Amino acid sequence: MPIERRPLREQIREELLSRLDRGDFAAGTDINEASLAADLGVSRTPLREALITLAGEGVLESTQGRGFRFAPVSRREFRELCEIVAALESLALDCSDPAHLRSIAPDLLKLAQDFPDNVAEQQIIERHDDEWHDLLLSGCRNERLLDLITSVKAGMRRYAHLIAGDDAPLEREAAEHRRIAEFLQADEPAKAAQALRDNWINGMERMMSRIP
Amino acid sequence: MPIERRPLREQIREELLSRLDRGDFAAGTDINEASLAADLGVSRTPLREALITLAGEGVLESTQGRGFRFAPVSRREFRELCEIVAALESLALDCSDPAHLRSIAPDLLKLAQDFPDNVAEQQIIERHDDEWHDLLLSGCRNERLLDLITSVKAGMRRYAHLIAGDDAPLEREAAEHRRIAEFLQADEPAKAAQALRDNWINGMERMMSRIP
DNA sequence: ATGTAATATTTTGTATGCCGAATTCATAGT
DNA sequence: ACTATGAATTCGGCATACAAAATATTACAT
After folding, report:
1. Which nucleotide is nearest, taking the CA of residue B44 and each C1'?
2. Is B72 on the interface with A (CB under 8 A)?
3. Which nucleotides of D are covered by protein (CB under 7 A)?
4. Are A57 and B57 a contacting pair at CB < 8 A?
5. What is the mean pLDDT of residues A165-192?
6. Which of A142, A207, B105, B194 has the smallest set of CB atoms within 10 Å of its CB?
């Protein structure tokens, strides 16, 4: 087996993102590099490198002399992010091979149907949703676009833990996923792309009330 | 006057990008951190921070143990970037205040007409083109989107110096800009957005032959 | 008591140093 | 002559050390 050898900065970045998912960090509060580095068991150098990448992705803010802090959440920014991801994922569908889309349609349908069954834990649901979108975009031939989508979605993880509870929206989410998959199966990619954009906009509106 | 106080990493990033515009760096060749740092008169630390940022924007690549290199150019990647920027700028138009768009239309028209006059120097032309697009997007209310566009365009700077020479494409570029401005003046934002997307796709095709 | 100035402390930003991995060059064996 | 193996060297990754800025604290004056 090939043993894992990746830069510390990447591992740190992922650790910070997953802590973010758990809602560990209070938005807007400053990050103390020394204490966080000690907590993670690394030195400040790779930590700062991770912080800088996260700042580039919009997860963090920084100001001269005051270091980094988790960017505060806002309805406005969440709307902006959703609009962006909607456009990007829609473009990704356009860049995909229609034949491939048809071939994955059954799996997408199946995944969408499994959705409401295991509403056990929050983390599971998010994973499930990500998995669905990843599969949807798996046929996209625009590599740069996929990277970009991943990066923008990282900026949305600050909002992830706000979804907790409330099952009703999930069923609608699943219904919309089914709808998209059906369009793909029927070989109507344009309609699927439109439904995908709608899905993001609807999901945004469902979230809005939960954001301060 | 408020004296400029910005992190070194940002100044370094911009210096590297402007060197890129001048075609100073051969794509694909490895970067030697120590010598580049010495050349810039800074230490490796802020240089690496700038390199990491640029890698996040797709300007550089990095592999474990081999450090950073300027990502090689390819027709494929250039097409991918153009498709992305076309979609993003189009979205930015959608997010703009129609009234504001109408109000800047005359200026956009004027700028587009000035275009072919001063074909003196390459740098001037690029600045001019950037200025036009910046003005076009100046009414966009999606801040995150504007940042993202800036970031993606940074990744396109590797292709900038390939445009040198050849005036014919520039006139077509100017004509397309005029067309977009006219749609805005006529209060037809949807058609303007379509023309903008066409502009990027056409510009891409004009460039294609120049990329190895 | 409150505001301000001077100082101390904390924390970021930058520089330097060390270690290990990766590449290169040399040498030996086929 | 060519490949393979090992030594030497270069270079990136990470840690540590230092410098500068910002914040907190205290003393003093009004």
Report:
1. C15
2. no
3. 11-17, 21-23
4. no
5. 89
6. B194
Whole-number Å distance between alpha carbons of B11 and B162: 24
Classify residue A24 as exposed, middle or buried by CB count within 10 Å of its CB (0-12, 13-18, 19+).
exposed
For residue A123, what are the contacts with CB-CB under 8 A and spacing of at least 6?
A21
- To the question of pTM greater than 0.90 for the whole model, the response is yes
A58 and B152 within 8 Å at the Cβ level: the answer is: no
Q: How far apart are CA B80 and CA A145, in angstroms?
A: 7
Contact criterion met (CB below 8 Å) for B51 and B68:
yes
Q: Does residue B27 contact residue B158 with C-beta atoms inside 8 Å?
A: yes
pLDDT in tens, B73-112: 999 999 999 999 999 999 999 999 999 999 999 999 999 8
DSSP state of B30: B
Give the nucleotide with minimal C1' distance to the Cα of B65: D12
What residue type is assigned to position B179 of the chain? Answer: R
Q: How far apart are CA A204 and CA B164, in angstroms?
A: 44
Rounded Cα–Cα distance for residues A50 and A52 (Å):
5
